[in-house]
Amino acid sequence: MSISSPLRAAARSVYRDLWRASGTTFAGDPPILLAFRQKIRRDSLEQYSVADEEVFKNNLKLGREIADFLRKNIVQAERLQMQPGEETAETYKIRITEHTELGDNDTIKTPENMVEMPRRRRGKEEKGVTVDSEVQSVAVPRFYSQMKKAHKERVIPVLNENDLEESFVRGSGPGGQSINKTENNVQLLHKPTRIRVSCQETRSLKQNRKIARRILLDKLDDISNPGLSKREIQKAKHLERERRRRKKAKKARLRAEEAVVNVSGSE
């Protein structure tokens, strides 16, 4: 059974609709725009090989729905450049088009009982790592002094050797024969969470085993204490130092400007 001419004309119309919708939605993002248009081009070529009219019509309907969804429900955001002296929080500018479907429920902007999940923890959950529901509801303190106090009171995870699956493989990279011809690369698998780490930082197998366990413990700390782990508190400490440095430099600059004004006034 061949596809009638009106249906093929409708297919061309849907293709043009998808092409325009992608241009509106992904304007300013050439890689995504190019990838999407290559995808619809491949799908359109495959569509011409369909002989069943019902399947052909269903594909046309799906194409129209995708074009409509692109225009109304997909928005892109651009991260704005931070000015000197501003806070470290990232700011994004959302690009809203005339077709974007806007809701009137303001409560979506301030949802209750929700804490933003760190990016690393989201990745672990996608891989099937189970995280305690009580951990998800813990709010991370905003200020460094509060974070430091909460960090000291956190529950540090314990590494049980029975939960580990350890293997040794031949090393690679620079270091000579003591690296490339010995099995000093330590591979650790934490069976409850399926987290896998490897270590080949030194030529000593004994030291690499210690370092691998330390790395694994840090990863478990990130999962058990989101925002309060050892690595997160070190990052917050660095940001706090930078904030204080900028504040001190701003005060010094203001004092210098006041001194110049006073000298000019006295003259």
From TrEMBL:
SUPFAM superfamilies per UniProt: Release factor
Single GO MF descriptor: translation release factor activity
Compartments reported by the entry: Mitochondrion
Region (Disordered): 227-267
Record bears the keyword Transcription: no
Residue ranges with Basic residues bias: 243-253
Alphabetized UniProt keyword annotations: Mitochondrion, Transit peptide
Record field: compositional bias (Basic and acidic residues): 229-242
Principal location class: mitochondrion
Matches recorded under InterPro entries: Complex1_LYR_LYRM7 (IPR045298), Mito_Transl_Release_Factor (IPR052405), Pep_chain_release_fac_I (IPR000352), Pep_chain_release_fac_I_sf (IPR045853)
Residue span, Prokaryotic-type class I peptide chain release factors domain: 159-250
Domain of life, per lineage: Eukaryota
GO annotation terms (biological process): mitochondrial respiratory chain complex III assembly; mitochondrial translation
One Pfam assignment: RF-1
GO CC terms of this entry: mitochondrion
Family recorded in the similarity comment: Belongs to the prokaryotic/mitochondrial release factor family.
Name this protein carries in UniProt: RF-1 domain-containing protein
Lineage start: Eukaryota, Fungi, Dikarya, Basidiomycota, Agaricomycotina
